[in-house]
Amino acid sequence: MTGEREQALLAQVAQLRAQVADGAAREDALQKQIDALQKQLDHRTAWPNNLEAEKYVLGGVLFDAQRTLPAVASLQPGDFYLSVHQAIWAAILDLDRLSRPIDIITLVEQMRVTETYGKLAAYNGEAYPAELVNGAWSPMDAIGWHARHVRDKSVLRRLIRAAHDVVALCLAADAPADEVASEAVRLVMEATADVGVEAMPARPLVDAAVKRLEARHEKKAQIRGIPTDLPVDAMLGGLHPGQLVVVAAETGRGKTSLATQIAVAGQVPALLFSLEMSADELMDRIICQTGRIDGHNFHVLGTLTKQEWFSLSVASEKLAEGPMWFIDALTTIEAVRSAARRWHARHVVAKKLTHALVVVDYLQLIEGRGGKSQGRNPANREQEVAMISRLLKILALQTGCVVVALSQLNEEGQLRESRAIGQNADVVFVLEANADNPDLVDLVVRKNRRGRTGRIPLLWQGQYTRFEAP
Questions:
Q1: 48 and 79 in contact (C-beta within 8 Å)?
Q2: What's the rounded Cα separation, in Å, for the pair 31 and 122?
Q3: Is the dihedral of CA 274, 275, 277, 280 positive or negative?
């Protein structure tokens, strides 16, 4: 059925429904016309569907709900193609929620209660549920297989709708292309958000946990995650896939330095989002940090010692060959997530790598959906930052990357703008001045979902913007 034909039918249905509402004609006669038109709409062939699988699932549940419903309970009314099937499934879910028996009689009663009984009129009325039961001829154990076909076709239809929305978005767009692209990615991600999501039984999880323990026992003290090359590795065992790691400190305490040092030390693909400095500025600092080159000589004087020139050559070669990427032109959380997913697909998944790092510098500079966070109500901004930190955690889980998010501290030494930052994080590092030695900075592991917390003194080499073990 063409789009024009479908729109014409929809318009006729709307017109007839309006006449019913106005009482302009006999309701039963108009309802028959509506049902006939709806049936034509239901049998349009333009969009993916598997009507036989839909009928089997519905018939199987009506035949023996106690046995079959648990295997297909994740289906939603919108997963079915025919509107009559959507109405039947909605009634079945209502009956289950109300703890009522599920059979043909209770189904029809429930559809009358929810005023969806009219959907059956174009499909032989009350006889249609019986036809569904009689058609469920194959073994009931196959119902899960049929349900997967129903879900698969539903996902394809959702993707088509998302694609239509993307086309409309592009045609009407007056926003920058990167924002449009970010919204397009969001639409597709939402359309496929539950694809492949299944409940996991305990046994394979237990077996996997035991294997991980055995592997750790064999490796003894080896770092199993991404190493930081700092004493904190002994406490954490490195940084692990799927973690959101927050590095917090007052302004000028070394947040960016710690993050870039971790990115270089990890020797894994690393993507650095810099919202505070340009990529050029950040690379200058990383070169000095990696080569232990005096920053004043590098940035201000432009004159290096013979040893520093050699160190510059070695550091530059190491960094040029290293797997690091930089983005300094994005400000919204959706743009950051979209860019990170593209980078991950291209440079991590395509190369079949298992470890990767994403650094966001820093959280309070990221804008929420739609941008322009400045000047908003502080309470709203707190909710926005909470949402941003949650989306970064979801990014870590979806990609398997370690996401390192930098955050400022307020005057009370708490994470600025939202306590939810710490709640969403797996690990929270806080950099504080050492009470006894001005040359030391304490790396406080304030939160560690995997185990111990504590305070680790580090030597701050300000001329290199670098941390070392004391």
A1: no
A2: 9
A3: positive
Kindly tell me if the per-residue pLDDT of 405 is higher than 90.
yes
Give SS3 for 455.
strand
More confident call, 411 vs 82: 82
- List residues bridging with 327 in a β-sheet: 273
Compute the distance between CA of residue 458 and CA of residue 444 in angstroms, rounded to an integer: 10
Mean pLDDT, range 194-218, rounded to an integer:
64
Alpha helices in 305-431, H assignment, sequence order: 306-321, 333-344, 378-399, 420-424
Q: In the numeric block, which tokens belong to residue 248?
A: 């917090």
> What average pLDDT does the segment 187-207 reach?
67
Q: 38 with 23: CB under 8 angstroms? A: no
What Å distances lie between residue 245 and 127, 129, 252, 302, 396, CA to CA?
59, 54, 19, 36, 10
Asked whether residue 393 carries a pLDDT value surpassing 80, the answer given is yes
Name the residue with tokens 């030494």. 413
Q: What is the mean pLDDT of the chain?
A: 81
Confidence of residue 1 (pLDDT cuts 50, 70, 90): very low
AA identity, residue 67: R
Above 60 in pLDDT, residue 219? no
Q: What angle is formed at CA 237 by the lines to CA 232 and CA 242, rounded to 5 degrees?
A: 110
User: Is 458 within 8 Å of 232 (Cβ atoms)?
Assistant: no
Name, in order, each residue with C-beta under 8 angstroms of 406's C-beta and a sequence gap of 6 or more: 246, 247, 248, 255, 256, 259, 359, 360, 361, 362, 363
Question: CA–CA separation, 316 vs 290, rounded Å?
Answer: 9
Distance CA 198, CA 184 (A): 26
Residue 431: its H or E element: strand 427-433
C-alpha to C-alpha distance for 243 and 449, rounded to whole angstroms:
10
183: DSSP letter: H
Q: Does domain 225-468 have CATH number 3.40.50.300?
A: yes
Task: State how far the alpha carbon of 174 is from the alpha carbons of 170, 177, 337, 437, in Å.
Answer: 9, 9, 21, 56
The residues spanned by each domain of the chain are: 47-152, 225-468
Contact by Cβ (8 Å): 65, 72: no
CA distances for 181 relative to 84, 112, 262, 314, angstroms: 36, 45, 30, 39
Query: How many residues would you count in the chain?
Result: 470
- Select from 82, 83, 75 the least CA-distant residue to 92: 75
Q: Flag whether pLDDT at 262 surpasses 90.
A: yes
136 Cα distance to chain centroid: 38
Name which residue leads in pLDDT, 11 or 59: 59
Indicate the CATH number of 47-152 among 1.10.860.10, 3.40.50.720, 3.40.190.10, 3.40.50.150. Answer: 1.10.860.10
Q: Is the pLDDT of residue 31 over 80?
A: no
Mean pLDDT of 425-431: 91
